[in-house]
């Protein structure tokens, strides 16, 4: 794990790193020492590890005492896009333009990325927990939209993750992974989501095997999750990982 | 307004009162002085002002600095049941036993009670805000199930109410009142509610005209709202009335 920069502001330290070919960012409380809960923060499709919503959320969590790590998903952000992925992405755009079922198209894209994304997260989790200011504490995962689509197979495969904030995605291609998830889940739905039909969102919430799961639905489109849900999710993680 | 008893424990003062023929309870922080936000707390059908869930919620709100007032709904608790109400209640039970639509039956019952309940709440609100330890501060309403069914016409009619926690009820008979409500609403749904079909709950949430409204859905039956929703609703009221 190779750190490439470190800055601190407003009580939060931000460190960019590479783990092999995976570019990432770690946020911790300034002058943090010793073990603390860690949140893995997945980004949305076409976005990257330092998308504004990600950074704002990460800094709020870190200001609350958490360590937070984000990485670029395969073929996103600072990672190379190979030709095969370019063809898949072009196929997705063409399918959407042609009026094909967005749920199926998006699920196909996520299915291509998931095996690599799961392996990346597992390696990053192990590496980050070796740092003195993180340690082997309880772990949560937070990801919406593509971050949910790549997070579900990760959480299903990874017993170290003990709570998750997910949402903004439908059930397409994810029912089996959801049925293997038993940790507490907060699941966000945008009531007027132009990308995810409401019934497919509700079906994904239904499919989670967790006995403690709460759906939060707010008016507005895919990108309109209200800011108070970020603070609410921080309290959710504090309750389950604190 | 005639107070009949006063006790204090765990930092909360509980005072029973009568306002004309309306029996009620007021909870305030012990030794409270001056104006504070007030929560009107409606109880469920067949229950009463000091049902255990009501008292527990009221004490948590009051410990957080709120004044909380609960009254017995018409024909409930310490209030007389007249013969007409007895016939209506028997008709509801018979209809449920005969497999009639519970939404329509329950809406009929709530429709009978609502005009009296709205007038009672308006009188109690005015009287309670004259007390030194309450004052004319911001007001919220909290009620589930029948407390929601009687609360919606109240909130639609009462501009002093600025935020509400509602839920555990379907849209039957309430769409017009819901369309007149514009204050922030937290709306609770029990995902496996044996009394309220899920689609009718979602339709009532849909019908609210509020631009800020959040639906929280949790697994379990009508009576299984998790305790963390009580603390979450206290923060909701603090955000909007604090």
From TrEMBL, chains A, B:
Q: From the UniProt record, which GO molecular function terms apply?
A: carboxylic ester hydrolase activity
Q: Please name the InterPro entries in this protein's record.
A: AB_hydrolase_fold, FrsA_esterase
Q: Which UniProt keywords apply?
A: Hydrolase
Domain of life from the UniProt record = Bacteria
Extract the SUPFAM superfamilies matched here. Answer: alpha/beta-Hydrolases
Coiled coil start-end: none
Could you say which protein family the record assigns here?
Belongs to the AB hydrolase superfamily.
- Name of protein: Alpha/beta hydrolase
> From which organism does this entry originate?
Streptomyces fuscichromogenes
Lineage of producing organism: Bacteria, Bacillati, Actinomycetota, Actinomycetes, Kitasatosporales
């Amino acid at each position: 794990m190779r750190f490439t920069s470190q800055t601190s502001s407003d009580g939060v330290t931000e460190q960019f790193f590479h783990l092999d070919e995976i570019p990432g960012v770690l946020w911790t409380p300034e002058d943090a020492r010793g073990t603390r809960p860690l949140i893995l923060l997945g980004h949305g499709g076409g976005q990257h590890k330092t998308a504004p919503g990600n950074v704002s959320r990460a800094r709020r969590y870190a200001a609350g005492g958490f360590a937070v790590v984000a990485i670029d998903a395969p073929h996103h952000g600072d990672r190379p896009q190979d030709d095969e992925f370019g063809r898949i992405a072009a196929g997705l755009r063409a399918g959407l333009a042609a009026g094909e079922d967005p749920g199926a198209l998006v699920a196909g894209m996520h299915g291509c990325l998931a095996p690599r994304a799961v392996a990346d997260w597992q390696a990053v989790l192990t590496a980050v927990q070796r740092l003195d200011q993180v340690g082997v504490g309880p772990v949560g995962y937070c990801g919406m939209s593509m971050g949910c689509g790549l997070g579900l197979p990760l959480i299903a495969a990874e017993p170290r993750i003990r709570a998750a904030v997910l949402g903004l995605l439908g059930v397409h291609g994810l029912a089996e992974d959801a049925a293997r998830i038993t940790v507490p889940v907060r699941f966000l739905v945008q009531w007027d989501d132009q990308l995810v039909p409401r019934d497919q969102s509700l079906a994904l919430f239904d499919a989670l095997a967790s006995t403690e799961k709460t759906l939060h639905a707010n008016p507005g489109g895919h990108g309109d999750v209200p800011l108070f849900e970020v603070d609410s999710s921080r309290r959710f993680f504090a309750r389950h990982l604190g």
